[in-house]
Write a structure and sequence with these properties.
The termini are far apart. This protein has one domain: 3-Layer(aba) Sandwich (Rossmann fold), CATH 3.40.50.300. A five-stranded parallel beta sheet has the order 2-3-1-4-5, sandwiched between helices. The protein contains twelve helices and five strands. Helix 2 packs across helix 11. The chain has 286 residues and is of the alpha/beta class. The structure holds adenosine monophosphate and magnesium ion. Magnesium ion binds next to loops.
């Protein structure tokens, strides 16, 4: 059993070709995978409780991946053990007119989680080095003319600095790339078309983007290499099997949260006497 996906290398030399989208991470049977996921979801729930009590750290979870890669389903399943009061989910769509007038990091900045909370980005500022790179016509007009390598290099630097600022301010940044195979995407899109209750999820864009599959893969690979850093490494999640994807994400979240050695805030010594007095009083009333 090898549940833990390794972080993407930070030396800029990783290759997506060596990442199998159908990898089962050593899990042969469904039962073992199910048990591991359930155990990690329970652990996450406890960790979130201490996280919100201490409010020392916040957690930003970034989900990137193509259409039908399983981002929504991961949010639904992996986060099912979390207390909704301490979590926010933000989905990034094509920018609004107001968002376009700002720098591209602005809409992400205003949606960031505070310390004590978990914030999930369903897509993120990474769209601004991915979808707009494949389709430069989607860039704000003043950048459309200069959509050259220099622009992407500059944005990679800005993103790395943005994330470093977050991490240095106790906002942990956990980034997941859902690595889906082209064949599995076809199956999932087909399922959407066949099932009327899933039609709403289908977008003509899905077919248009699918035509640029290999361009997307190479843009993703370059992005992972440029933005996997010691402070915010990427995790590439095998996405063809949903349960495996979920357990891989849960495993990383649990390991990274445990590493923070979170603790409940301690009561100041002088308060302990007061607490005992309150207890005596409540016992009489209970
Ligand atoms: P979905 O995730 O299916 O709701 O689709 C959201 C769409 O918005 C995707 O096609 C994204 O590529 C697109 N999108 C998100 N952010 C940006 C951006 N900054 N510029 C252009 N398109 C974006
Ligand atoms: Mg979609």
């Amino acid at each position: 059993m090898r549940a833990s996906p390794l972080p993407w290398p930070v030396n800029g030399k990783g290759s997506l070709k060596s990442c199998d989208p159908a990898d089962t991470l050593g899990f042969r049977d469904k039962r073992a995978a199910k048990d591991k996921l359930a155990a990690d979801i329970a652990a996450l729930s406890d960790l979130q409780d201490v996280l919100s009590a201490g409010a020392q750290f916040g957690v930003l979870v970034v989900f990137q991946g193509t259409d039908a890669a399983g981002k929504d389903s991961a949010i639904k399943h992996v986060m099912s053990g979390l207390n909704p009061q301490g979590v926010s989910v933000h989905s990034f769509k094509q920018p609004t007119d107001e968002e376009v007038r700002h720098d591209y990091l602005w809409r992400a900045a205003v949606a960031l989680p505070e310390r004590g909370r978990v914030g999930i980005f369903n897509r993120s500022y990474y769209e601004d080095v991915i979808v707009v790179r494949v389709h430069p016509e989607l860039l704000a007009p003043e950048f459309a003319k200069q959509a050259t390598k220099a622009l992407w290099t500059r944005r990679f630097r800005q993103i790395n600095e943005f994330e470093r600022t977050l991490v240095e301010n106790n906002i942990v940044v956990l980034k997941f790339y859902f690595n889906l195979s082209k064949r599995e995407q076809a199956k999932r899109l087909l399922a959407r078309l066949k099932e009327p209750s899933k039609h709403w999820k289908f977008s003509a864009q899905d077919i248009i983007q699918r035509k640029r599959w290999s361009k997307y893969k190479s843009v993703y690979e370059e992005t992972l290499n440029a933005t996997s850093t010691p402070w915010a490494p990427w995790y590439v999640i095998p996405a063809d099997h949903k349960r495996i994807a979920h357990l891989a994400i849960a495993d990383v979240l649990v390991r990274r949260l445990r590493a923070l050695r979170l603790a409940y805030p301690k009561l100041p010594a002088e308060m302990r006497g007061t607490l005992r007095a309150w207890m005596r009083q409540l016992r009489k009333e209970a």
